[in-house]
Amino acid sequence: MFWQNFIRLCSKAGKSPNRVASELGFSNAVATGWKRGSVPRDSTLLQIAEYFGVPVESLTEETLSAPDSKEPPSLEKENERKEEDELETRFMNAVQRLPLPQKIALVEILEAAIGNGATDTRQIRQRLSASQTASFGR
């Protein structure tokens, strides 16, 4: 019940469950526990409810299809969301293992890619290669 409500709110906010958990200061393991049926403590429920701007009851009560809700996500969308969650987890785990100079370089690359709208993977790889040469050798 909690997990379905949490997923619904995450989807409405356009964020993955792992991203919301991370923004709230929880590990991916905590979010995985919720997915497997664990219910957060009252203080955590309050924190989540405040994050979404909803009453705590909307996280814990069984909800029927809300009148304003759209049809459930397709299997394809659900699989895409799962892949995105897994990729985010892998990314965060990899970043945590980097030394500080590499983290700085990575942030600079990401900001440059976002700022320049670089969607071509070749451009991003070229920047990464140049940055590795300049920053990773610090």
List keywords for this structure.
mainly alpha; 434 Repressor (Amino-terminal Domain); 8 helices; 70% helix
Structural features, described:
This protein has 138 residues and is an all-alpha fold. The protein has a domain of 72 residues: 434 Repressor (Amino-terminal Domain). Helix content is 70%, strand content 0%. Helix 7 runs antiparallel to helix 8. The longest helix is centred in the middle third of the chain and has 23 residues. The protein is elongated and about 55 Å long. The relative contact order is 0.09.
Which helices and strands occur, and which strands form pairs?
Elements: H1 2-13, H2 17-23, H3 28-35, H4 42-52, H5 57-60, H6 75-97, H7 100-115, H8 121-136
Helix pairs in contact: 2-3, 7-8
Order of helices and strands: HHHHHHHH
Helix content: over 70%
Q: Specify the CATH class of the domain at 2-73.
A: Mainly Alpha
Structural class: mainly alpha
By CATH, the topology of the domain at 2-73 is 434 Repressor (Amino-terminal Domain)
pLDDT average, as an integer?
79
Estimated radius of gyration: 19 Å
Uncertain regions spanning at least 5 consecutive residues: 64-69
Count of separate DSSP helical elements: 8
Ends: how far apart? 50 Å
